């Protein structure tokens, strides 16, 4: 999946992946996609919840070698 911007939030603990994702999302235009990489297991729930309440859409989420990867489309 093609992302407009990639955010490396690996090694950051809650709530920093969401804080960084919000900041990165502010730089995107509606419809663009943010790819987030994080090792924080809490992000499995936190990022989709934040995206939903912020009007964004999680297009896909997968886990590779302990890294969670999210593709979030700006609403």
TrEMBL record:
Transmembrane segments: none annotated. SUPFAM superfamilies: SirA-like (SSF64307). PROSITE patterns: UPF0033 (PS01148). Residues 7-31 form the UPF0033 domain. It holds the Pfam family TusA. CDD domains: SirA_YedF_YeeD (cd00291). PANTHER family: SULFUR CARRIER PROTEIN YEDF-RELATED. Belongs to the sulfur carrier protein TusA family. This is UPF0033 domain-containing protein. It comes from Geobacillus genomosp. 3.
């Amino acid at each position: 999946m093609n992302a407009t911007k990639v955010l490396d939030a690996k090694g950051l603990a809650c709530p920093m992946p969401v804080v960084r994702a919000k900041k990165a999302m502010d730089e995107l235009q509606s419809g663009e996609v943010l790819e987030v990489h994080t090792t924080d297991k809490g992000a499995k729930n936190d990022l989709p919840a934040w995206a939903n309440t912020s009007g964004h859409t999680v297009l896909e989420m997968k886990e590779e070698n302990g890294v969670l990867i999210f593709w979030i489309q700006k609403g």
